[in-house]
Design a protein that fits this description.
By secondary structure, the chain is an alpha+beta fold. 33% of the residues lie in helices and 20% in strands. The termini are far apart.
């Protein structure tokens, strides 16, 4: 970045001086830099994903407020134990 200057107790980015302790957020997908911590917005799940997660809960025998990935992993673990 041509407009990035790193000092001993601050950085200058795009003409804005950021001191020690100021929060910034780096967008790992797009490479953007945002001052502070932006609110995360996630897309809602569609009916097909909800159906899949419902089946995963049935297989694992667990119903909780876990995330989708954890729910699928629990179902996969049960299926592996059953040799499926």
């Amino acid at each position: 970045m041509a407009d990035l200057v790193v000092g001993t107790d601050s950085i200058v980015l795009g003409g804005k001086v950021l001191g020690v302790g100021e929060e910034i957020t780096l967008d790992g997908a797009g490479g953007g830099v945002v001052l502070g911590t932006p609110e995360l917005v996630t897309a809602g799940t569609d009916d097909h994903v909800e159906q899949l997660l419902g089946w995963a809960d049935e297989v694992s025998g667990e119903v909780s407020r876990r995330g989708g990935e954890e729910r699928l992993e629990a179902a996969q673990a049960v299926l592996r134990r059953r040799g499926v």
